[in-house]
């Protein structure tokens, strides 16, 4: 019988050969995690890695590495990045978080940031902004489960809206930004007349001038509805008027059986000459549409100055009927 040859294997040699350059190319290399950037509620930069949030802590001495700590204060994971926020490594021996990730947080942060941006740059009602952005975001089920309602979100946006709201003026002589002269989409004119603004001067007003400032808001759509109406309702509110004005005067028309406001005016007093001035503004505006303000019936609360102004206003038709309640 032939002798059996026993072959021995050197484990060291095998191990070293497995680490040869040729074999090392076949070994899977650890991949760098993806970093997503977002911002905190205060506008500070945050990084999100695998569903975990990190906020900036400090630099190293040479300013070549940035340190980021987990936003969960009980978690000790530290992230290292380059100055351009590219992943370098996790610091130390603690690389596992002691809490679960929150992947929905990024969706909610981006959603709220877009809402805050619109709240500070647009005049759209806050609830509408919340509803529109929620529909556009296409959130996952996890994000929808923790998302507050539109009313609650709209309420939290109020302090951001206040940042763009001008302070209350100390007199009736104040500047009106263009933002408040147009509708909430900033596409169409809304401020019809300002007695203190020469660019909105109407030649047809003549010498009738009130003692204070008069502001009138009415869009082109509202004006056309006003001029096409045979019945008008007028009313003034005094308790809700802003400082330095005596009242908010509203003219309403009928659309599909419903009263619709078509003119808002801030008036300085309740004198007949002030109401005549307002009516003259509307008559002059009607000429720009090649139409006439010719209602057949006007209903209003009984106020002697309004009654006198309607009676003295020569542009109203002689067939006009008035009802004072």
UniProtKB/TrEMBL annotation:
InterPro entries: MULE_transposase_dom, Znf_FLYWCH. The lineage of its organism: Eukaryota, Metazoa, Spiralia, Gnathifera, Rotifera. Residues 1-38 are annotated as: Disordered. Keywords: Membrane, Metal-binding, Transmembrane, Transmembrane helix, Zinc, Zinc-finger. One of its GO terms (molecular function) is zinc ion binding. Residues 39-99 form the FLYWCH-type domain. Residues 232-312 form the MULE transposase domain. It comes from the Eukaryota. This is Transposase. It comes from Rotaria socialis. Residues 15-29 have a biased composition (Low complexity). The chain crosses the membrane at residues 248-267. Gene3D superfamilies: 2.20.25.240.
């Amino acid at each position: 019988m032939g002798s059996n040859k026993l072959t021995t294997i050197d484990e060291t040699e095998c191990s070293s050969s497995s680490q040869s350059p040729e074999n090392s190319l076949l070994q899977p290399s650890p991949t760098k995690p993806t970093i997503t950037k977002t911002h905190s509620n205060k506008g500070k930069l945050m990084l999100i890695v695998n569903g975990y949030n990190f906020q900036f802590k400090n630099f190293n001495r040479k300013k070549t590495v940035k340190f980021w700590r987990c936003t969960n204060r009980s978690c000790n994971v530290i992230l290292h990045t380059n100055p351009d926020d590219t992943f370098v490594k996790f610091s130390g021996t603690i690389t596992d978080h002691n809490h679960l990730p929150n992947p929905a947080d990024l969706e909610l942060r981006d959603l709220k940031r877009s809402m805050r941006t619109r709240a500070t740059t647009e005049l759209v009602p806050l609830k509408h902004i919340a509803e529109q952005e929620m529909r556009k975001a296409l959130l996952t089920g996890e994000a929808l489960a923790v998302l507050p309602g539109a009313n609650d979100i709209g309420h939290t946006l109020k302090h951001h809206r206040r940042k763009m709201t001008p302070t209350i003026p100390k007199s009736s002589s104040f500047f009106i930004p263009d933002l408040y002269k147009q509708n909430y989409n900033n596409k169409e004119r809304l401020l019809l007349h300002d007695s203190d603004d020469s660019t909105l001067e109407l030649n047809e007003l003549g010498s009738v001038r009130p003692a204070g400032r008069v502001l009138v808001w009415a869009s082109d759509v509202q004006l056309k509805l006003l001029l096409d109406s045979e019945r008008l309702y007028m009313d003034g509110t005094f308790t809700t008027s802003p400082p330095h004005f005596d009242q908010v005067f509203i003219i309403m028309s009928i659309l599909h059986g419903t009263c619709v406001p078509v003119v808002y005016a801030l008036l300085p007093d309740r004198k007949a000459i002030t109401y005549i001035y307002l009516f003259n503004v509307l008559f002059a505006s009607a000429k720009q549409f090649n139409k006439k303000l010719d209602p057949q019936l006007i209903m209003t609360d009984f106020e002697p100055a309004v009654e006198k102004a309607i009676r003295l206003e020569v542009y109203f038709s002689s067939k006009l009927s008035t009802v004072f309640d």
